[in-house]
Structures are given as C-alpha cells and as structure tokens.
C-alpha cells in the first residue's frame, strides 16, 4: 500500500513538473504574440506544450503500472485524453488546436486548466 501511494506521489511530481513547463510555455507564447507578434515563437511554444502532453502516458508508463487497478484506469484515461488531443493537434499542425489543449470551451482566465484540475483530483484521490 505504501509503495503504491509513493508511486502516485511520484506521478504527481512528474505531472506538476509538466504543468509548470506548460504554464511557462503558454506565458512565453502569449508574450511573443502580445509584444512582437512573433508567430514563429508562438507556434514553437505551443508545439512544445503539445509534445509534453503527447508524451505523458509513455513517460509515466512504468510508474502507472504499479498503481492499483482502479487508480491505474483513472490515470490512464486522463493522460490518454490529454495525449490524444495533443497528438491530433501536432498531426494537424494546428496552432489553434494546440492553444486550446487543456481548456474547455467555457474556460475563464481565473480557472485552472484541465491538467491542473486532474492533478488536484489525484491529490485528493477524488475519483
């Protein structure tokens, strides 16, 4: 039991690192647009964001496999959804799609993105 809880904590740490990277990339992308209207930097930052999301299930696979069946299913489904959308955005090379990753249509600026909500839910074991 303790080992599995530790593994969930390790997964949470990795997800938080990814979230920080993504938040930084989004800020850099926004600044590139607002300051210089640098579409190349904007696109590059959003592509990196999508690549991080696309790789999450593979990067965390070994840790996920140690979780109990119910938690594993929840984590795989969540990360799979993030990854699927990111792969689709990368395949289409759609800046719009990349910018919308992690944000529902009705998202407000004062709300968490979907990855942060997922992390919070895992921390509370609220699934």
Structural descriptors:
elongated, 127 residues, mainly alpha, single chain
Question: What would you say this structure looks like, in words?
Answer:
With 127 residues, the protein is an all-alpha fold. The chain has one domain (2-124). 80% of the residues lie in helices and 0% in strands. The protein contains six helices and no strands. Helix 1 (2-36) runs antiparallel to helix 2, helix 1 (2-36) packs antiparallel against helix 6 (114-124) and helix 2 runs antiparallel to helix 4 (69-92). The radius of gyration is 15 Å and the shape is elongated.
Strands, helices and their partners?
Layout: H1 2-36, H2 39-59, H3 61-64, H4 69-92, H5 95-100, H6 114-124
Helix pairs in contact: 1-2, 1-6, 2-4
How would you concisely characterize the structure shown here?
By secondary structure, the chain is mainly α. The protein is 80% helix and 0% strand.
